[in-house]
């Protein structure tokens, strides 16, 4: 019975690890989560930790330095958008915020919201980084 559980956990972990290879942030999150889970809960903990780590790894993967540099160098708009709630990394930005694409990096856009520059994934509307 123990061997069946171990084999099942290994199969589940391998399938998630294979899917995670597509994104670097996912892979590092999955690996870190799997190691932590293995320490805490053995093989089953490794599988669960890998899944959780993969999810977190994609949510906080920062944009490349050239995207941050570009957004920082842009002139501040005359007026900034003000929203009622706090803008947070990993959360969607309100749909009313107009995003400006980052040239040569179609998977990033930016806006100035609540006097903060915010880098966003334009496909999902998820905040990737807030520049302080």
From TrEMBL:
Keywords: Signal. Residues 1-19 form the signal peptide. Pfam families: DUF1236. It comes from the Bacteria. InterPro entries: DUF1236. This is Membrane protein. It comes from Pseudorhizobium pelagicum.
């Amino acid at each position: 019975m123990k061997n069946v559980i171990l084999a099942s956990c290994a199969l589940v972990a391998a399938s998630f690890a294979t899917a995670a290879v597509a994104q670097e942030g996912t892979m590092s999150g999955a690996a870190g989560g799997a190691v932590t889970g293995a320490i805490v809960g053995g093989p089953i903990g490794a599988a669960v930790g890998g899944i959780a780590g993969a999810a977190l790894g994609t949510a906080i993967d920062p944009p490349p330095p050239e995207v941050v540099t570009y957004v920082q160098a842009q002139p501040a708009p005359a007026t900034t958008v003000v929203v009622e709630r706090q803008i947070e990394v990993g959360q969607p930005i309100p749909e009313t915020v107009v995003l400006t694409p980052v040239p040569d990096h179609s998977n990033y856009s930016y806006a100035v919201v609540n006097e903060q520059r915010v880098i966003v994934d334009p496909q999902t509307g998820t905040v990737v980084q807030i520049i302080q």
